[in-house]
Amino acid sequence: xxxxxxxxxxxxxxxxxxxxxxxxxxxxxxxxxxxxxxxxxxxxxxxxxxxxxxxxxxxxxxxxxxxxxxxxxxxxxxxxxxxxxxxxxxxxxxxxxxxxxxxxxxxxxxxxxxxxxxxx
Length: 120
Hints:
By secondary structure, this protein is mainly α.
């Protein structure tokens, strides 16, 4: 199997997993035979963000885009979605203000990845 083929298959699979964990965490956890308390759902949604970033990275890696750019964009998607997810969970009252440390770091990493894409 070629890299382009397996990358496409993996991109589609991780897209499905990411959307499932991000938007239907209770269903995903119950399919695993797990309870779905808020703590598990918070972590599920964060895993969904990672899967969506990985899907982005794999999709881009199969094109003629340079690998470093695909990784930078995928990394920015992962860390950007994690930051957004953290703020969403804080606003919803499911996590404490302690998550702000993570969201600041994730935001800075996102900015770093995006800034690496700017041609000098």
